[in-house]
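Hi R.,

As promised on Friday, here is the backbone we talked about, encoded as structure tokens. Could you run it through your design pipeline when you get a chance and send me back a sequence?
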């Protein structure tokens, strides 16, 4: 049984607050130079779902970070932080405890007095601070296998997918995305696709990033962590590509299998439901552009049109 933690003294609390303030101040200080700002923007592209404060904290403490997770999360993925690695400190949201909420209800549940979430610094580790666990652990791949989708046979379908993005307020640009095939910024409502990809590869990358955008506005979203979000996005991309006869199995199938094998039944059920909703939404536009729907496709069209944007 774990020992209860010793309560901090007032002096220790103040020292901890001072250390936290200095950590935040030092991270902001790095924005002063043009190089620092450019580096921050690159870090922001890697951590699109993180607050700007956490992006700053990650960049200032570990500039090479491309993915971060807590100790237990890495264990679940088949990795373990390497001994001697210095943890990265970021802010984590702490919901009010059930005890505080119950006390608030017992006191009359005044909306103005409802307990609020607090934030605390927690430890995470980057992808280059962990090593694979030995068997029987099966480490999940941290990036999809590199098997670019070549050719330009489906280039004409780009406009229809860009149209779906426009319907939900997103713009699409092609440019330099670094090592990523695509980037979806759910705050600025912008999707960027790598210009180095061939036309078919751009289409698949666009569908993947559009799936992330649709997840962000879904009317019935499950709570997804990074791995589950990637599983949904890649599943949607594979389904849509398959619908229009574009083979991405060499790239997608090993990646999907590695994540799905580690997911719980509840997560798989939620992922399957969301994948079906989002893929159907995009497939309508793809089928309309590719050709008139076959009789067997009409059920798909009807179902997708019933999905709220």
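Update: got your reply. Pasting your designed sequence below so it's all in one thread:
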């Amino acid at each position: 049984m774990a020992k209860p933690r010793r309560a901090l003294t007032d002096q220790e609390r103040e020292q901890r607050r001072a250390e936290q303030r200095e950590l935040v101040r030092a991270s902001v200080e790095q924005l002063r130079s043009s190089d620092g700002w450019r580096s921050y923007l690159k870090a922001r592209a890697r951590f699109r779902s993180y607050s700007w404060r956490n992006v700053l904290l990650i960049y200032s403490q570990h500039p090479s970070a491309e993915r971060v997770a807590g100790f237990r999360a890495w264990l679940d993925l088949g990795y373990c932080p390497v001994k001697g690695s210095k943890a990265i400190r970021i802010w984590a949201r702490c919901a009010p405890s059930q005890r505080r909420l119950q006390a608030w209800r017992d006191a009359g549940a005044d909306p103005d007095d409802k307990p609020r979430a607090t934030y605390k610094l927690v430890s995470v580790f980057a992808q280059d601070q962990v090593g694979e666990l030995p068997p029987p652990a099966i480490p999940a791949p941290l990036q999809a296998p590199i098997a670019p989708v070549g050719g330009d046979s489906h280039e004409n379908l780009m406009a229809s997918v860009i149209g779906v993005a426009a319907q939900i307020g997103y713009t699409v640009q092609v440019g330099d995305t670094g090592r990523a095939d695509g980037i979806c910024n759910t705050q600025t409502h912008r999707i960027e696709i790598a210009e180095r990809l061939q036309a078919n590869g751009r289409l698949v990358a666009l569908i993947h990033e559009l799936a992330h955008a649709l997840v962000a506005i879904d009317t019935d979203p499950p709570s997804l962590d990074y791995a589950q979000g990637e599983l949904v996005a890649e599943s949607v991309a594979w389904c849509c590509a398959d619908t229009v006869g574009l083979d991405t199995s060499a790239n997608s199938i090993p990646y999907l299998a590695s994540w799905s094998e580690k997911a719980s039944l509840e997560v798989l059920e939620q992922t399957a439901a969301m994948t079906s909703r989002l893929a159907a939404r995009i497939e309508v536009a793809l089928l309309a552009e590719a050709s008139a729907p076959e009789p067997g496709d009409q059920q798909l069209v009807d179902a997708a049109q019933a999905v709220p944007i």
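One thing I noticed while checking it: The chain has two domains: 15-132, 155-305.

Thanks again,
M.
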